[in-house]
Specification:
With 224 residues, the chain is of the alpha/beta class. 33% of the residues lie in helices and 29% in strands. The protein has a single domain, classed as Vaccinia Virus protein VP39 (Rossmann fold, 3-Layer(aba) Sandwich), CATH 3.40.50.150. Helix 1 crosses helix 4.
């Protein structure tokens, strides 16, 4: 089944949130949870304590800048021009060194093979639809050095929120508005298989359940 996509459509959302005085894509509560998750990741056993980090779907740059704050050499890529402008502004304001690039996560050709120590999925994978997902994972694998860490935090399982359920297509497992797919709610086991098929070795994974909002699949993988 082929679905239409509109990845650049995220740009309008970033413009709106910035105009409303928001700090990024996430509200304060969601960002605090995401920040705690990333800090725990950095502190976890076996995670690289230095090196080059690439965030896929970096948005307004908050996660990437958190890595920069911890001393990593940081790069972020996002298809939304407004998000990249926002991220660059934050880096300039805070004095953090980070390179933010407008681009497509399905094509990371601006970077050489095996250049990054860490690749982070910044809640981007669930926004990528159909065959594009394999392209994104293939590129993530290519730019990661052998033994490097690939971290994924992605929505999974059946949707729970009423607004999402109204627009949910169970056949494709996507949220679809006016024929355009915006989110993929894959089964955890299927997402894990996608990551393994791209060549990654899964070190650990877990599904974090939420009562009212979407479950999240957390995956730590390495390039073997």
């Amino acid at each position: 089944m082929s679905l239409k996509t509109n990845y650049i459509g995220h740009d309008a959302r970033y413009k709106k949130r910035k105009a409303e005085g928001k700090t990024g894509w996430n509200d304060e509560k969601d960002w605090n949870e995401w920040r705690t998750e990333i800090l725990a990741l950095i502190a976890s056993d076996g995670f690289p304590q230095s090196g080059k980090v690439l965030e896929l779907g970096c948005g307004a740059g908050d996660v990437a800048l958190l890595f920069a704050e911890k001393g990593y050499q940081v790069y972020g890529i996002d298809i939304a021009p407004s998000a990249i402008e926002w991220a660059r502004g934050k880096a300039l304001k805070t004095g953090m060194k980070a390179e933010f690039i407008e681009g497509d996560v399905r094509n990371l050709r601006r970077w050489e093979d095996e250049i990054f120590d860490v690749v982070v999925d910044g809640h981007c994978l669930h926004c990528i639809i159909g065959d594009d997902r394999a392209e994104m994972l293939k590129e993530a694998y290519r730019v990661l050095r052998p033994g490097g860490s690939f971290y994924v935090s992605s929505m999974c399982g059946d949707p729970k929120e009423p607004e999402v359920l109204k627009n949910y297509d169970p056949e494709s497992r996507c949220m679809v508005y006016s024929g355009v797919a915006g989110r993929y709610f894959g089964r955890a086991e299927d997402i894990i298989k996608e990551i393994e098929k791209a060549g990654f070795k899964i070190k650990r994974h877990e599904v974090r359940g939420n009562n009212d909002t979407q479950d999240d699949l957390i995956v730590m993988a390495i390039k073997s």
